[in-house]
Amino acid sequence: QVQLVESGGGLVQAGGSLRLSCAASGGTFSSYNMGWFRQAPGKERDFVAGISRTGGSTSYADSAKGRFTISRDNAKNTVYLQMNSLKPEDTAVYYCAAQTSNTIVLYTTIRRYDSWGQGTQVTVSS
């Protein structure tokens, strides 16, 4: 089973940028679709962005469109989330996840992702 480790979170002012990274090990990274999710205190975990195995297809939540960019480097077994124009409502724990089955379709639902990282905290101050 693949292991995922996120990094790059932190405290940033509104309007600032952060780049999250997720390093994978123990699996065949290039065969997995990858996703970023986030969970704010007292709220459910929500889909943020997803990317297909080759990087040729991406999907974004409405809240992320135009501000966030997901990308991957299969040679480095790493997926990234570039976050620009951050807002206080982006404050959450951000999780990286792998969709290891039915990878013909890039899913946006939590139950389709079967390997998860431990999360990284992103805090945006106003």
Question: What can you tell me about this protein's structure?
Answer:
The chain starts with a strand and ends with a strand. It has 126 residues and is mainly β. It contains no helices and eleven strands. Helix content is 0%, strand content 49%. A hairpin with a 5-residue loop joins strand 4 (33-39) and strand 5 (45-51). The mean pLDDT is 96. The strands form two sheets. Strands 2, 4, 5, 6, 9, 10 and 11 form a seven-stranded mixed β-sheet that branches. It has strands at 3-7, 10-13, 18-25, 33-39, 45-51, 58-60, 68-73, 78-83, 92-99, 115-116, 120-125. It is globular.
Distance between the termini: 40 Å
Q: What percent of the residues sit in helical stretches (DSSP H or I)?
A: under 10%
Percent strand: over 45%
Largest sheet: 7 strands, mixed
Helices and strands in order:
Layout: E1 3-7, E2 10-13, E3 18-25, E4 33-39, E5 45-51, E6 58-60, E7 68-73, E8 78-83, E9 92-99, E10 115-116, E11 120-125
Parallel strand pairs: 2-11
Antiparallel strand pairs: 1-3, 3-8, 4-5, 4-9, 5-6, 7-8, 9-10, 9-11
Task: Describe this protein with a few key phrases.
126 residues, mainly beta, 7-stranded mixed beta sheet, 4-stranded antiparallel beta sheet, globular
A few lines on this structure:
This protein has 126 residues and is mainly β.
